[in-house]
Specification:
The complex is a heterotrimer of chains A (667), B (249) and C (223). Chain A is α+β, with helices and mostly antiparallel strands. Chain A is built from 18 helices and 19 strands. In chain A, helix 11 packs across helix 12, helix 15 packs antiparallel against helix 16 and helix 16 packs antiparallel against helix 17. The mean pLDDT of chain A is 95. Chain C has a single domain, classed as 3 helical TM bundles of succinate and fumarate reductases (Up-down Bundle). The chains are: A alpha+beta (667), B alpha+beta (249), C mainly alpha (223). Bound molecules: flavin-adenine dinucleotide, protoporphyrin IX containing FE (HEM), iron/sulfur cluster (SF4) and FE2/S2 (inorganic) cluster.
């Protein structure tokens, strides 16, 4: 018997959401004015939720740790956002998007949630266009689409390589409008350090003003956590430096179940690591796989020659190259889902075919695309017998128009010209599918505490398809949470303002102060980053792209060891009452050190492979991930009991009524 | 390589600051500028000294959080990039590098190299939006075709990351490039038409209240802008402003 | 009036309009001066006309005076506001990397021109005022050319004039195109032409004045 009720509405899948909206409680407009909601996070999920809730009439307090809500890490999303608009007339539909997402997630997501996501996806595009988001358009003035990995239709809307930025600025401006009217109170440079629970309900947070160091109490009738993903547990990831698990982890410690922590997406196309000083990894958008072809040399000696800088990629003749994705997956080719592409790259590199000094890189080559586009362009311009050089020049122009900013970014970082030399790429940690457990209303297992966006575990199962996170963040914030939260708040119309003068707030504040003081007073000898890097290395080596029982058990021990050392020997300079970036890092890393262990434990218990979680013990003879639906068709939802080693797992069984469970195949 | 760093240190908004000199060694040319500062800070922490505070988050040139006035230019000597994308190969072994915060009355220093740019947020709050509530019933996204050129120009203006380098570069600490980018984006799109006049008036008003200087068309903003926002936008904003003043609603 | 210059953008329009006005005035001034090279009679005729015609004297001249005053006052106000917008300056700065010297130093070139105006008024305008309004002499029609020759016989004065026109050129090289940008006139089609015109105007007009000054200076040597 589990304590989890996912509250999935009855009825056929296509009617559930409409029916649910009709059935749940609503708060009348006059009463909304006397209800306060805290939203932690100003990314796509938090920003859109804040704006929508404020528009509905709730009093919203929004928090972010950056200096402006516009800087949440959603800003970095490059490639695009999915929506079942079928503008390209290629047979797209709500059902197809639903199907692709469930299949892409390797059948580990909840059907009803995913269907709802697909259902509201079209509204997102309408809403964003109405806000003035400048999506890419065709010459006729209509919206353009591209395709992303793991699907056979073109349903991805984009704004060059800056889709996340444009969408976030849309949500940010919607927020700005409401900040201007006082409906949203914005707390920049504030970090949530604890969740406050009063009478079993989430009624506030403890936040630290990062500029002054002041510990503040904030009360509300409900708390929404939209604090993003926890990929930084790996130290190196494509996440922003400040991305953290603290808000979610603190809620977890207060009773929110943490689901599927081990589901992590390793993105296949990132710029490889260049040295130990490296602070983060940079993504090269998946959209590049529309046109780029991935390869390594066929022969080991060629690979070695390239690794030792004795040979150039462009000098290797076509027949000596191994376009391994096209070879292994003829149907999807370079556009297989991310987990598949990443593992294939690792497989080649582990086999010794990597193409840089570290042997951890493969080529992403645009030569074919440049010539193809150049030829097309030459035809359009009616050029007779253009020279190869001319075609290349025209093609480079087309590629620049499509991917210019990504190519520029690559060149700035690596000092290599990607128009002339194939890019070198390697997988990197990118997204975390796991997160806080939520029911159909996006409420966590703590009443009144909601989770939206990457912070929850909701829609992507064991692997997320490209361009679906932006869709989910905005769906949660614009179109789901604003309705479902009313169901809970309807009971609070007579509650009146929540006081911060209660024993619960006293206790929570005291705990936070003690935590901070102990870090400051520890006066050890090693920096916070020292521990974070060690944690990251264990995670990457043993809980990364391929996992096995032995490695995971070792990882759990090592992480505990690092955690113990952290508390003995960490040095945090400065004081509590000042702008202290080291202290902010320390609180985040402390929580990562607990999460890391739970993460490894989750990976250890799931002995099947699925999506981003690859257990070496569970693979097909060809080395593909092998799911075990008989024993693992559930989500693992962990309950905190005081120490990660004792966390208790609750299963939520996943039932598939509208999609047939099959082994994924992209062949 | 080995470098001498001259860095502005200031404990908080109310303290007086000064330039301090530091030496760093064994810097790889493949490091980013911020990674070089990480190395410096790691060293300072190891010595028990307080590390240099500087803003940063995404470290890939898009969040607009990083700043730094490096060797007399915002985001350093390279063009079309932010500080976090600047790499040490742009510097020479033995070089002295001057690092200061953005300086403008409207961007007060918080600590060391960090400044408060909330004035930018307030300008957007004054009108940098389309007043449309969230609803499932906005018209279909393809109902109004937008000429590609307008869409592209609007996009180019919309790529501003709000970093403030334009203000830092400008001898007048003027925010015209930032403000005009948002005014232009929305003026170019059909969705922005309804509030077009109020928007430009209110945003310019707020810009002035924040204490930014007047534009004298030196063009430094656009050259130093990491997103290469064009001066066309300032001219467009001036036109918008004229129309809104001469032909008010 | 106050409302017009309440916001920064409005102030820019006002500055640009006064600038345009001065640009136009300068062209007119040069045209008349240039006739002094071509024909003393024409020069005397035009100068006398400008100096005595009631419309020019009582309608255009006050407008001009106001225009000059406004431009200067506004220029100084803007400069003070702009300095205040950065309370603490950079200790190390490399502005040349991103903007021209001319564009950054309009106040310096402007004040140089202002100082020149002082000299110029002292040379021509104040004696003119004294003659007309204190002595009441209005009807000598051929004095202008000789006064001109007389003034430019002095090598120091001539040198000062030439130097000032140099400053004027620097002022105009930025000012001309800047005024177009201020009023929002900028597009791919015409802006290159505006910039070209700016450079032609900025060089040709001051050069014209210099030629006039030098012509009379060298002329005085041969007398
Ligand atoms: C480089 C990159 C490229 C991507 N490209 C795509 C793409 O093309 N398409 C796609 O669909 N997805 C993409 N993704 C994934 C997608 O961008 C993210 O999953 C999504 O934007 C997350 O949004 P969010 O609102 O949940 O969180 P975020 O945008 O990360 O926002 C988190 C917010 O929470 C705040 N916060 C966090 N912790 C605290 C705390 N303790 N106290 C106070 N505030 C806190 C932060 O300040 C921030 O405002 C990409 C991700 C990355 C990293
Ligand atoms: C006949 C002489 C002059 C001419 C033709 C002239 C012309 C111009 C023009 C066209 C501009 C550009 C306006 C704009 O950018 O919108 C300008 C700017 C300026 N002028 Fe003059 N000017 C003259 C004299 C002066 C004098 C005497 C001063 C003395 C202070 C001065 C100070 C300035 C300043 C400070 C600016 C820059 C202000 C700004 O761009 O906002 N000018 N001038
Ligand atoms: S206009 Fe350019 S320099 Fe100014 S804030 Fe925007 S991106 Fe930064
Ligand atoms: S850190 Fe985000 S732009 Fe530099």
């Amino acid at each position: 018997m589990t304590k989890l009720d996912s509250k999935i509405p009855e009825g056929p899948i296509a009617d559930k959401w409409t029916k649910h909206k009709n059935d749940i409680n609503v708060v009348n407009p006059a009463n909304k004015r006397s209800i306060d909601v805290i939203v932690v996070g100003s990314g796509l999920a938090g920003g859109s939720a804040s704006a929508s809730l404020a528009e509905m009439g709730y009093n919203v307090k929004t928090f972010c740790f950056q200096d402006s809500p516009r800087r949440a890490h959603s800003i970095a999303a490059q490639g695009g956002i999915n929506a079942a608009k079928n503008y390209q007339n290629d047979g797209d539909s709500t059902y197809r998007l639903f199907y692709d997402t469930v299949k892409g997630g390797d059948y580990r997501a909840r059907e009803a949630n995913v269907y709802r996501l697909a259902e509201v996806s079209a509204n997102i595009i309408d809403q964003c266009v109405a806000q003035g988001v400048p999506f890419a358009r065709e010459y006729g003035g209509l919206l353009d689409n591209r395709s992303f990995g793991g699907v056979l239709v073109s349903r991805t809307f984009y704004a060059k390589g800056q889709t996340g930025q444009q969408l976030l600025l849309g949500a940010y401006s919607a927020m700005a409008r409401k900040i201007n009217t006082g409906k949203i109170k914005m707390y920049n440079r504030h970090e949530m350090l604890d969740l406050v629970i009063v009478d079993g309900k989430a009624r506030g947070i403890i936040a630290r003003n990062l500029v002054t160091g002041k510990i503040e109490r904030h009360a509300a009738h409900a708390v929404v956590l939209a604090t993003g993903g926890y990929g930084n547990v790996f130290f190196l990831s494509t996440n922003a430096m400040g991305s953290n698990v603290t808000a979610a982890w603190r809620a977890h410690r207060k009773g929110a179940f943490f689901s599927n922590p081990c589901y992590t997406q390793i993105h296949p196309t990132c710029i490889p690591r260049s040295g130990d000083y490296q602070s983060k990894l940079t993504l090269m958008s998946e959209s590049l796989r529309n046109d780029g072809r991935i390869w390594v040399p066929k022969e080991k000696e060629d690979a070695i020659a390239i690794q030792e800088n004795r040979m150039n990629a462009i000098d290797l003749p076509e027949e000596k190259r191994d376009y391994y994705l096209e070879r292994r997956y003829p149907a999807f080719g370079n556009l297989v889902p991310r987990d598949v592409a990443s593992r294939a790259a690792k497989e080649r590199c582990d086999a010794g075919f990597g193409v840089n000094e570290t042997g951890e890189a493969v080529y992403l080559d645009f030569a074919t695309a440049i010539m193809r586009y150049g030829q097309e362009k030459a035809n359009i311009l009616h050029l007779e017998n253009p020279s190869d050089a001319k075609i290349r020049e025209l093609g480079e122009g087309v590629v620049e128009a499509k991917y210019g900013n990504l190519f520029q970014m690559y060149e700035k970082i690596t000092d290599d010209n990607p128009y002339k030399m194939p890019m070198k790429i390697y997988p990197a940690v990118h997204y975390t599918m796991g997160g806080l457990w939520v029911d159909y209303n996006l409420m966590t297992s703590i009443p009144g505490c909601y989770a939206a966006g990457e912070a929850n575990f909701s829609d992507h199962g064991a692997n997320r398809l490209g361009a679906s996170a932006l869709m989910q963040g905005l769906a949660d914030g614009y179109f789901v949470l604003p309705y479902t939260i009313g169901d809970f708040l309807a009971d609070d119309i007579r509650t009146g303002p929540i006081s911060t003068e209660s024993a619960e707030f006293d206790q929570a504040e005291k705990d936070v102060r003690e935590r901070l003081d102990s870090l400051i007073n520890n006066k050890g000898s090693k920096s916070v980053d020292h521990f974070h890097k060690r944690l990251g290395k264990v995670m990457w080596d043993k809980v990364g792209m391929a996992r096995n029982e032995k490695g995971l058990k070792e990882a759990i021990e090592e992480i505990r060891q690092i955690r113990d050392e952290f508390y003995e020997d960490v040095f945090v300079p400065g004081s509590q009452n000042e702008f202290n970036q080291e202290l902010a890092k320390a609180t985040r890393v402390a929580d990562f050190l607990e999460l890391g262990e739970l993460f490894a434990k989750d990976a250890l218990e799931r002995t099947e492979s699925c999506g981003g979680h690859f257990r070496e013990e569970s693979q097909t003879p060809e080395g593909e991930a092998l799911r075990d639906d008989e024993n693992f068709a559930f989500s693992s939802n962990w309950e905190w009991t005081g120490d990660p080693r004792n966390s208790v797992m609750h299963k939520e069984e996943l039932t598939f009524n509208d999609i047939e469970l099959k082994q994924r195949s992209y062949k | 390589m080995n470098l001498t760093l001259k860095i502005w240190r200031q404990q908080d908004a109310n303290s007086k600051g000064a330039m301090h000199t530091y030496e760093v060694s064994d810097i790889s040319e493949h490091m980013s500028f911020l990674e070089m500062l990480d190395v410096l800070n790691e060293g300072l922490v190891a010595k028990g000294e307080s590390p240099v505070a500087f803003d940063h988050d995404c470290r890939e040139g898009i969040c607009g959080m990083c700043s730094l006035y490096i060797n007399g230019e915002p985001h350093g000597p390279d063009r079309a990039i932010t500080t976090c994308q600047l790499h040490m190969r742009k510097f020479k072994d033995g070089e002295t590098i001057h690092i200061e915060p953005w300086r403008a009355k409207a961007f007060p220093v918080i600590k060391d190299l960090t400044v408060d740019r909330s004035s930018f947020d307030r300008i957007i709050q004054a009108g940098g939006y389309v007043s449309v509530n969230t609803s499932g019933n906005t018209q279909d996204a393809n109902a109004i075709p937008i000429p590609k050129a307008d869409a592209d120009n609007a996009f180019d203006a919309a790529t501003c990351i709000g970093c403030g380098a334009c203000v830092a570069a400008c001898k007048n600490a003027s925010a015209m490039l930032f403000v005009s980018a948002k005014v232009s984006q929305l003026a170019l799109l059909p969705q922005g038409q309804v509030e077009r006049k109020d928007r430009v008036m209110n945003m310019v008003d707020q810009m002035d209240k924040e204490g930014f200087g007047n534009c004298t068309n030196t063009g430094a903003c656009s050259i130093e802008c990491p997103k290469e926002i064009s001066l066309d936008n300032i001219a467009r904003m001036n036109r918008e402003f004229l129309i809104a003043s001469v032909l008010p609603e | 009036m106050v409302a017009l210059i309440r916001t920064s953008v409005a102030r820019k329009y006002a500055m640009a309009l006064s600038g345009f006005f001065l640009l136009f005035f300068l062209l007119q001034h040069l045209t008349i001066n240039f006739t002094s090279i071509l024909s003393a009679e024409t020069f005397n005729f035009l100068s006398h006309f400008m100096g005595t015609n009631p419309f020019v004297q009582y309608a255009l001249q006050p407008v001009l005076a106001f225009g000059v005053f406004f431009h200067i006052a506004m220029g100084i106000v803007l400069e003070l506001q702009n300095r205040a917008a950065r309370d603490l300056n950079y200790s190390y700065s490399n502005p040349a990397a991103s903007s021209t010297w001319m564009s950054r130093n309009m106040i310096i070139t402007g004040i140089a021109v202002l100082l020149f105006l002082g000299l110029h008024f002292y040379d021509f305008w104040f004696p003119e005022l004294k003659l007309k309004f204190i002595d009441g002499v209005w009807n000598i029609e051929d004095r202008y050319f000789s006064e001109l020759q007389h003034k430019f016989a002095d090598p120091i004065r001539t040198a000062l004039y030439v130097l000032s026109f140099g400053f004027l050129a620097l002022h105009l090289l930025h000012g001309f195109q800047s005024a177009f940008q201020s009023v929002g006139f900028r597009n791919n089609k015409y802006t290159p032409t505006v910039k070209l015109l700016a450079n032609i105007y900025g060089v040709a007009v001051p050069l014209g004045f210099i030629v006039v000054a030098l012509y009379h200076y060298f002329g005085s040597l041969t007398h």
